[in-house]
Amino acid sequence: GTISIEKKIEGDVHLMTTEGNILVSKLRGHNITLQCHDTQGTIHASELLEAQDLRVTTAGRLRAKQIHGQNIDVEVNGHEPGMQNTVDNDDDDDGSLIDISSLYVSGSGGAHLFVDSSTQTTKGIRVKS
């Protein structure tokens, strides 16, 4: 089912669901892993995801206000074309499969954002700043 965390969590975090969404406000730690295997599910971070090593995997979509990290890996695959968004859009959400308002990479790390090439959509990845 859906995982919903309305407050801030600090520390290493691993969240996984096979059905539903992952809805968080603020997660901060060294290692954070978020996995949503529902093809109509959304991972939504309304405030911040911050980790030295951040791994996000979803069969639906990712929406995040801010992502900070050293090694950032985001993969979206298996998305169903024409799916209904099950999470209310915020004002800055343009509906892309990976939609990040602010992305900050620190140190000598990097960010890898990937959308499965078989996904049929006009909006794959958007990073505003």
Summarize the structure.
With 129 residues, the chain is mainly beta. The protein is 0% helix and 64% strand. The protein contains no helices and seven strands.
Question: Helix content range of the residues, please?
Answer: under 10%
Structural class: mainly beta
Largest sheet, if any?
Answer: 7 strands, parallel
**Which assembly state applies to the chains in this document?**
single chain
**Low-confidence parts:** none
Number of helices: 0
Number of strands: 7
Q: Determine the N-to-C terminus distance.
A: 32 Å
Order of helices and strands: EEEEEEE
Radius of gyration: 13 Å
- Name the beta content range: over 45%
**How many domain units?**
1
Q: State mean pLDDT (0 to 100 scale).
A: 89
Indicate the overall shape.
globular
Describe the structure.
The protein is globular, with a radius of gyration of 13 Å. It has strands at residues 3-10, 13-17, 22-36, 42-58, 61-76, 98-115, 125-127. The mean pLDDT is 89. By secondary structure, it is mainly beta. It has one domain (3-127). The chain is 0% helix and 64% strand. The chain has no helices and seven strands. Strands 1, 2, 3, 4, 5, 6 and 7 form a seven-stranded parallel β-sheet that branches. This is Adhesin domain-containing protein. It comes from Cyclophora tenuis.
